[in-house]
Amino acid sequence: MLFRSSGLDYGMFLQTIMLAARARGLHTCAEAAIASFPDVVRRELGITRDSIVICGMALGYADPDAAVNTFRPERIALDEYAVFMD
Questions:
Q1: Residues 51 and 39: beta-carbon distance below 8 Å
Q2: How far apart are CA 20 and CA 27, in angstroms?
């Protein structure tokens, strides 16, 4: 079987779930790294080999007092990576 991946479709699907979750007071964290360990994910979740592991997602209520939730990475300015056309 030839599989043609569409990362754009997956990304839009995940973003829609994440936005809907926030609208309902939930927090999310996309977990793309699990795609590097598909056999472990399949074993732990009982997923058959005919399914492709693309991404996971944590879903729940964030703990604002947890140290991990206080991390704020440095960001480059928007105009350093995006161009808006009139």
A1: no
A2: 10
Q: Is 28 helix (H, G, I), strand (E, B) or coil?
A: strand
Token pair for residue 84?
Answer: 């808006």
pTM of the model: 0.70
* 3-state helix vs strand vs coil in the chain, percent to 5: 45, 10, 45
Enumerate residues 6+ apart whose C-beta is below 8 A from 12. none
Calpha distance 75→8 (Å, rounded): 23
Say how far residue 46 (Cα) sits from the centre of its chain.
Answer: 21
Nearest by Cα to 61 from 29, 19, 17, 15: 29
Asked if 55 contacts 35 with a C-beta cutoff of 8 angstroms, the reply is yes
Q: Check if the beta carbon of residue 29 is closer than 8 Å to that of residue 61.
A: no
For the stretch 4-25, pLDDT in tens is 567 788 889 999 999 999 999 9
